[in-house]
Amino acid sequence: MLKEFIENYHRKLDCLYENKSLNEEELYHFKKRGVKLFDTGKDLNCSHLSKVLPFVVLGASDEYVNKMNVPYQATSFIAGEAYAPNSGIYAYKIIGQQGGGVSLLTGGTRKLGDNVFASLHRILVGNNAIIVTINNMMENHEQIWSWEFFGKHVRNSDPLIYQDLLNLSAKFVDYGEFHFVVSIRTIKSIADTNFIELYNKNEIAMLNPNNKVKVIFFTTIEIYNYLSKFVKESPLISYVVTGESFEIQVGLEILRKKHGVKYLLNDGGRIMSNSMRECGILGEERITLEPFNPLTLDYTISSNCILGKNGSGLDNSEIEYSILMNSTPVNDEKTNVYLYPMDESKIF
Q1: φ, ψ at 243 (rounded to 5°)
Q2: In a structure prediction context, what are the per-residue pLDDT tens digits for the chain, which is 348 residues long?
Q3: Alpha-carbon distance 266 to 59, whole Å?
Q4: Residue 238, SS3?
Q5: Contact (CB, 8 A) for 291 and 306
Q6: What global pTM score does this model have?
């Protein structure tokens, strides 16, 4: 399966190069990155899960990732078709709606495709670490963003698939080595989210010592000097100080070298993922596309909430600056993997 997938993938890259959608450097870069593919039935021993997603693919081989000096990053998003059926325009949230309006974008319920796809991201890509912003964390401060955040939605409806995910998690996720990484760029973000107040009340699930979750704060010297007075370093809490200014690449290099994190799930939202992409250190986006839900016509969907639009990608797919590596349909959902070119002068 891997050989056939790579051959088809390389043919697509060659075609994009011939059409001048990719330059020679980008063509060589994508081919050199390689592919990592899991057969969910044979490789992962998930016979029930394999009926939904026969395989899972990542846009870099182990050999390539092993050479990197920062973790290989992937994002996780869900987006619903906006404005009209077959519009080809996809929104990732509706401002002012609970939970970002995700339930509306998915047709009123959490669907099987996204629950399985997102659970697998956390197990296969985020088993070492997941990075979020402080704002992103505090929006769901009562939750721990493990695969169960999504997997719980299939526990009753598809118990055999849930058991596959449970077994897979036990195999891949070592919670003694796992870290949540929280990015804090400004003291204002600490105040705006009532972080310290909720921390003192022990209402932040990730920082509740009873949950035994290891958390690393990426921040500046100024914020470290302020925050560490309240959230003290411990076996569960540590800091990575990037300098006088916030330098995400410095933090990621320390995360790779000191903590051995090779793969990193970026769950920090659109602004954070865009900044990583602009730095040339974001590898891929893993996105579930949902069909149009007529109920969204009752809401105003801001243009700022648009994740993608047909024709925007380097290969005319939905996501700007990317190529669509793989798309697997699950009923009326599309579970897609988009790749970004990375800046090898920064990742090596």
Answers
A1: 125, -165
A2: 889 999 999 999 999 999 999 999 999 999 999 999 999 999 999 999 999 999 999 999 999 999 999 999 999 999 999 999 999 999 999 998 888 888 899 888 889 999 999 999 999 999 999 999 999 899 889 888 788 888 898 998 999 999 999 999 999 988 888 999 999 999 999 999 999 999 999 999 999 999 999 999 999 999 999 999 999 999 999 999 999 999 999 999 999 999 999 999 999 899 999 999 999 999 999 999 999 999 999 899 999 999 999 999 999 999 999 999 999 999 999 999 999 999 999 999
A3: 15
A4: strand
A5: no
A6: 0.95
Those residues whose C-beta lies under 8 Å from the C-beta of residue 95, and which sit 6 or more positions away, are 101, 302, 304, 305
Upper half-sphere CA count for residue 295 (Cβ side, 13 Å): 11
By CB neighbour count within 10 A (0-12 exposed, 13-18 middle, 19+ buried), where does 85 fall? exposed
- How many residues appear in the chain? 348
State phi, psi for 176 to the nearest 5 degrees: -75, -20
Strands 306-309 and 89-91: antiparallel
9: enclosing H helix or E strand: helix 2-18
Domain ranges for the chain: 2-342
CATH class of 2-342: alpha beta
Q: How many CB atoms are closer than 10 A to CB 11?
A: 10
